[in-house]
Structure formats: C-alpha cells, structure tokens
Amino acid sequence: MNRPPRLVRALAALMLAPPLMAQTAPDAPVDPVRAAFDRADTDHDGRLSRAEAAKLPTVGPKFEQYDENRDGYLSFEEYRTGFPVAPAGTTAGA
C-alpha cells in the first residue's frame, strides 16, 4: 500500500482545518415585532388582511385604528404602530 508519510497527512489536515473550523458571524438580532408580522402574514404578500389580523388578539380588534390608509390591509408600518418601541435605556410607557 502506497500511503503518504504521516507528516504530509498532518499538514494536509492542518490546511483543511481553518475552513472547517471557521465561525460564522452571529445573525443580526431578530425584531420580535417583524417576526410576529411575518408569521401572521400567511399568504406572504407583505401585508395583513383583515382575516390574518383577526387571528391576532391584540391586533384584530384594532384593525380599523391601525389601517391608516383605509385600504383594508395592514402594512408592516401600520402594524408596528401598535407596538411602540422605547428608546434604549428606558422602558415603554415610562
């Protein structure tokens, strides 16, 4: 059997190790409001219909209030109005 010397095998392993051990950068933080909107948008058209919003207990009853342009759908921007974001270092409603 014609095997490469042990040193050659070791060097080959070291050369292949960095790509195999490379760490990927952590993903960007997930926006929980965006994630909830995307889950509710079951037809993936980028907006919530009245039926999709009705499945969300905190949004359904306020659909008319959030639908600022009265088109019968909630854009993400309209949806977000129900979830005020506090500035860093503060708490919402404070």
Description:
- With 94 residues, this protein is mostly helical.
- Helices cover 41% and strands 4% of the residues.
- A two-stranded antiparallel ribbon has the order 1-2.
- The longest helix has 16 residues, at 6-21.
- The protein is elongated, with a radius of gyration of 25 Å.
- The chain starts with 5 loop residues before the first helix and ends in a 14-residue tail after the last helix.
- Mean pLDDT is 78; it is low at 86-94.
Topology:
Elements: H1 6-21, H2 32-40, E1 48-49, H3 50-54, H4 63-66, E2 73-74, H5 76-80
Antiparallel strand pairs: 1-2
Question: What Rg do the Cα atoms give?
Answer: 25 Å
Main sheet overview: 2 strands, antiparallel
From the N-terminal CA to the C-terminal CA, the straight-line distance is: 76 Å
What ranges have pLDDT less than 50 throughout 5 or more consecutive residues? 86-94
Q: What strand line-up does the widest sheet have? A: 1-2
Strand content: under 5%
Describe this structure in a few short sentences.
This protein has 94 residues and is mostly helical.
Keywords, separated by commas or semicolons:
single chain, 94 residues, two-stranded antiparallel sheet, elongated, mainly alpha, 41% helix, 2 strands
